[in-house]
Specification:
This protein is an alpha+beta fold and 133 residues long. The protein contains 1 helix and 9 strands. Strands 2, 3, 5, 6 and 7 form a 5-stranded antiparallel sheet that branches. It has a 4-stranded mixed sheet with strand order 4-1-8-9.
């Protein structure tokens, strides 16, 4: 029961942090894009899985899949510039064979001019989460 409570709290904290991060960014007057750096910072051994902990990441914009990162592994970083709009991110664990609910972000409107870092890490009770800065 305590683990389930920690999982729910971690998911709520992640979603709230994600939403608050976007509300704080000013919009560029002349741009229509935002920048993001995504880092996979979870060593799977801490969860009893492979060190690489391969995941597939689906990125939705305005409800449609616009990008799919296959075999994203521990230690990898990806940088991108994306058009402003409503986004949702889902992480699928190849080893567990399921989407990881605690690592789903959005949907949230991301304005032009945002400059974000999204880092996969471990939250309370070793719950995998996406942290947004």
């Amino acid at each position: 029961m305590n683990t389930r409570r920690n999982l729910v709290l971690a998911v709520l904290a992640s979603v709230m942090l994600f939403a608050l991060a976007f509300a704080a960014f000013p919009v560029k007057a002349d741009g229509h894009t935002w920048d993001v750096s995504v880092y996979h910072g979870i060593n799977g051994r801490s969860l009893g899985l492979s060190k690489e902990l391969p995941v597939d990441v689906s990125i939705y914009k305005d409800g449609a899949v616009i990008a799919y990162l296959n075999d994203f592994t521990f230690g990898e970083r990806i940088n991108a510039t994306l058009p402003a709009g409503e986004y949702k991110i889902e992480v699928f664990s190849q080893e567990l064979g399921t989407i990881v609910p605690s690592m789903t972000l959005g949907p949230v409107e991301i304005p032009a001019g945002a400059d974000l870092v999204i880092r996969a890490g471990l939250g309370a009770g070793k719950t995998p989460v996406l942290m947004v800065k």
